[in-house]
Structure formats: C-alpha cells, structure tokens
Write a structure and sequence with these properties.
By secondary structure, the protein is α+β, with helices and mostly antiparallel strands. It has helices at about 20-30, 30-45, 70-75, 80-90, 95-105, 120, 125-145, 155-170, 285-305, 315-320, 325-335, 365-380, 385-390, 395-435, 450-455, 470-485, 490-495, 500-515; strands at about 110-115, 175, 180, 190, 195, 215, 215-220, 225-230, 245-250, 260-265, 310, 345-350, 460. The strands form 5 sheets. The chain has a 4-stranded antiparallel sheet, with no helix packed on it. Strands 5-2-10 form a 3-stranded antiparallel sheet. The longest helix has about 40 residues, at about 395-435.
C-alpha cells in the first residue's frame, strides 16, 4: 500500500451502511436502483439532521416504524386494546385505582348546571334574568335528577355522566343517543339518553372499512365530519343464543333541523382521527408485567412464610419394620402428596427422599423501590402525579399541594371535555325541547344562533379538589379576593364545587334566624345589623325563594308556566 503523497488531501471514508431486508430485496431485483439508494443513504448519513432518523446505528437500524394514518395505526388494534384495557381495570390494582381516582375527581357526585343567561344581550333586567334562570334550573333539576332521563331507567343524569366518562377512558370512546320517547300514555314525549359501549359502533356484518365508513362511523370524505353511526343491536362480544345481530343507522344530526342525535366522547390525538384510543393503551404492557411481578413476589413471600414438618423414614428401618403389604400402603399414601405445603402440616416422605429448598429471601427489600419506579412512569403516561396515583402523601405540605394542583389541572381538563362532549349538548337539547313545547319562553331561540347561545349559557360545577391544610388555603383564598384577582364565586366553586349564590341565600336565612332568636354574634368590624321581624320577612319562611328587587319598569318579563 503506497503512502499518500505530501500535501495530497485524503477523501473522507464513507461509513458502511448495513443493508436491511428492503435494501437486499431491491438489490436482488434491481441492482441499479439499489446502488442509487445506497448512495442517497450514505449522503444522508454524512449530512446533519436528526440523529433519531439514522439507520446506520446499531440502536436504530431495526427501528423502522411505519408512518400510517390515524385509521391505519389504530383501527386494527382497537378490539385488542379495549379487551386488554378492561382486563387491566378488572384485575390490576394500579389500573383500577387510576380509573376510579380519575372518575371520582372529574365527575364525583355529578356535574351540575346553573343557568346564567347573557341578560344584557337578551335585553333582560336583573330581575327578569333571575326569574327566568330560577325557573329553568328548577325544571332542569326535575329532569336530570330523575331516572326517567335514562332510557333504561337505571340511573339519573349524574350517574350517566359517571358511566359515560368511565367507558370513555376504558374503551377509548363512548356514545350517547338522544331520542325523544313517550314515557306514559297521554303524556308528552321527553328527552332520554342511551349510552353505548364502543364495541357496538361497528361496520354492519363486519364489512371492511371504506373511505366513507370507518369502524361503524360514516364520514363525509371531504370534511371528515361524522354523518351517521352504525349501532349493533347486540354487543359483538355477547355469546348468548338468539337471532343474528342487526345494525341501526343513526344520523349524526337531523336532516332538516341539525339536531344532534348522537354524542361521541373521545380524545383527539391526531387530525382525521375517527375513533378514540383507550386511556391505558400506551402502558398495557408495563401494567401487565407489573401485575405478574407483584403476584410472583406475593406468592414467594407466602411460600417462604409457611412452616411444615417433613418426616423422613430410614430406609433400613422401613425394610425391617414393615411387611410387603404395609410397605405398599405407606408408599401409596406418600405418593399422593401433590407437593403443596400448608402451614403446620406434617408430611411423610418416602424412604430415601429428602427436602431441599433454596432460601427465597422474601419479602424482597427491593420490591417496593422497583414497584414505585415503574408506577411513577405509569403515572407520567396517564398524567397523574405519583402521590395522587397511589393515594399516599408522605412528603411535605408544599410537595403534597403541588401534586394535588398538578392533578387538579388534569382533572379540570377532563371535566371540560365531558362538559363539551356530553353535558352542555344534553342541556341544550333539553332546553330546546322545553322551549318547543312552550314550557319555557325564550324569544328568538330558534331564529338566531347568537340568541340561542345567549339563552343556553350557564356554568357547570362539580366537586372541589379538597384541601391539604384548610387554614392556609382559606387565608390564600381570602387574600386573592381582597386583591381583586379572584371572586367569591370562583373561590366557592374551587372549594367544594357549589356556587356562591346558593351558599349566600342559605347564609342569609341562617343569619336572620340567629338574629331573630338573639344568638347572632356579628364578626368584628362588621356594620350594625338591622333588627329582623320574623312575621314580615319572607326569607325566614320555609320554602320561599329569595326576594328580588322590585322593578316597576319591567314589562317584558318572559312568560313561564
């Protein structure tokens, strides 16, 4: 080999790129194309760009995922993901706890609605708006708190919220139809809700997907908007004997009115996504492995804690003391031992047998640290802080409160998603039906979308996040209100989910009752209280609504029966 001449520049050596199966196949069929491909790959290897896209490194040369569409990447795997997700919720404590914790904090006792119309835009006085809202809230509670709102009459609207969100997380998406049915003869039709599990939305007769029909959802190919849903009469996993399954096509919206007939709850992760992915999909494998590891450690600890006595018989004594019949009986009885060990049991061994056991070293001192490390990663994937996921707060107040605040942001985001997907659409459908049947007056509701939005406005509230140190949090809440960066309404809802107006009305009754009975003590620095006459003050009368200020110029109050 000749040495390079002085002053001659050496050309950089191109790194040898390993051939994958595709490269070999192209080289066998079309060598010229394979050569061009190799040159292009070499140029890319020498150029800049992302190291995560390299194919010439040992860590990445076999890492070649396909860049499929949302349908390609998810639809085929959804049945398996749903089945495994539900199995983990049934049998894995971490999955069960994560799901129950999330549903409890997002839904809790239920998300309640308080009407707050845009009075200024609608041209209503404060008195008119208060009267209209009180009437609507009263009628809404009568419907939402009754099991008649459920087509199966099993739970009320708050229970349906819980079930809708639970199946949404567990299966990836949830569906709710909104038919109008006649509950009793001679009575008007009313809005009812029917929930469907994700599996029941599927292609009729298991037909393959098409550009306009994807896993039971019929879409507009130009806009991607759902046009209709195909709902199986029976669950595909129902193996009870009966007639063949049938499917019903339900339009997403009314043809003439645009009324929403189907509500679909799912989390969009990619544009053009049609069906949702189970919440536990990214962590099914570590969840399953963690369950197996936990079971193995538990079984090992149980076995190591057993105490049994093994009686070994001397071979010579066995021959000298027993005749052939007795020997046969002893051998037969000892051979029936299955190998199971029970604490406190004496086990006879055959002549010549001995028990040899290894030291199991259980309980394993490294089990808990390793378990916590895996659960931390699971919590990161789910969006739940470790302390909240395992329901154990052993650090400082600051750390515990920080974990709760992070979790509460996650819960509030999911709560808003449930309100958007289910609660607000259901309320608007109910209000629309009440107005159409002249039970509630709302001028312009059907004529103008802006008026419709103004009449449908309201606030959804749920359970509050609780507190770690009530005294510190009350002081912080008071400071925010005094600084003007928060309101009594906002702090009240943050505290326990109940609006301030409801508490204020009850507080007024309590204070006036205490004043009447002479047991009220005014807080320091409060103004003098006016004596109350219980015979003339309607607030003290049970069941009375709070008084509204009189307005002699109010001549356009909306009518309500």
């Amino acid at each position: 080999m000749q040495a390079p001449q002085t002053g001659q520049l050496q050309q950089p050596t191109r790194p040898a790129l390993p051939q994958n199966l595709l490269d070999k196949a192209i080289a066998y069929v079309w060598p010229q194309a394979a050569a061009k491909r190799a040159i292009a790959r070499g140029a890319l290897a020498l150029a800049g760009g992302y190291t995560g896209a390299r194919v010439d490194s040992a860590a990445l040369n076999r890492y070649l995922p396909l860049g499929g569409s949302p349908t390609t990447d998810t639809i085929r795997d959804l049945p398996t993901l749903r089945a495994r997700s539900r199995d983990q919720v049934r049998n894995a404590p971490v999955a069960t706890g994560a799901l129950d914790q999330t549903v409890t904090n997002v839904i809790g006792t239920g998300l309640s609605h308080n009407a707050e119309v845009d009075a200024e835009f609608l041209g209503l006085s404060a008195t008119q708006a208060a009267q209209w809202q009180a009437d609507v809230d009263r009628r809404w509670r009568a419907w939402s708190e009754s099991v008649d709102c459920d087509i199966a009459r099993k739970t009320n609207f708050y229970g349906l919220q819980d079930l809708f969100f639970r199946t949404w997380l567990e299966s990836g998406d949830a569906f709710c139809t909104t038919p109008l049915v006649q509950r009793q003869p001679g009575r008007p039709r009313q809005l009812v809700l029917q929930l469907f599990e994700a599996d029941r939305i599927c292609n009729p007769d298991r037909k393959p997907n098409t550009p306009t029909l994807i896993d039971g959802v019929e879409i507009n190919p130009d806009t991607g908007e759902p046009v209709a849903y195909h709902i199986a009469r029976r669950h595909p996993g129902d193996y009870l004997p009966g007639a063949a399954n049938t499917w019903q096509r339900v339009a997403a919206r009314g043809t003439n009115t645009g009324r929403r007939n189907v509500l679909h709850g799912m989390r969009l992760l990619r544009p053009d996504q049609v069906r949702g992915v189970p919440w536990f999909a990214p962590i099914i494998e570590p969840l399953k492995q963690l369950s197996r590891y936990t079971d193995a450690e538990l079984n090992a600890a149980v076995v190591s804690s057993l105490f049994a006595i093994f009686i070994k018989m001397d071979t010579q004594a066995f021959q000298d003391l027993f005749d052939e019949d007795a020997q046969g009986t002893i051998v037969s009885n000892a051979s029936k031992w299955s190998g199971e060990v029970e604490s406190g049991k004496a086990i006879n061994l055959l002549p010549g047998e001995d028990v040899v056991s290894s030291t199991p070293g259980r309980p394993n001192a490294n089990f808990d640290p390793f378990w916590q490390a895996i659960v931390r990663q699971i919590g990161m994937a789910l969006g739940l802080p470790f302390e909240v996921l395992v329901m154990h707060f052993q650090s400082s107040y600051t750390a515990a409160r920080g974990a709760l605040l992070m979790a509460w942001k996650f819960f509030r985001g999911r709560r808003d998603a449930v309100v958007t997907a289910l609660c607000q659409p259901v309320y608007e459908l109910w209000l629309e039906h009440e107005i159409a049947n002249n039970r509630i007056a709302a001028p312009g509701f059907f004529a103008d979308p802006l008026l419709r939005a103004a009449w449908s406005a309201g606030v959804w509230t749920g359970d509050g996040p609780g507190s770690v140190d009530p005294s510190k949090e009350v002081a912080a809440s008071k400071g925010r209100v005094e600084l003007g960066i928060s309101t009594l309404q906002a702090e009240s809802i943050l505290h326990d989910g109940v609006d301030w107006a409801s508490k204020h009305r009850q507080r007024v009754k309590e204070v006036k009752a205490q004043q009447r009975d002479g047991i009220y003590i005014a807080p320091a620095g409060s103004p003098a209280q006016v004596p109350i006459d219980p015979d003339t003050d309607p607030i003290l009368a049970p069941g009375d609504a709070p008084r509204a200020p009189s307005d002699s110029s109010d001549t356009n109050s909306p009518e309500s029966p």
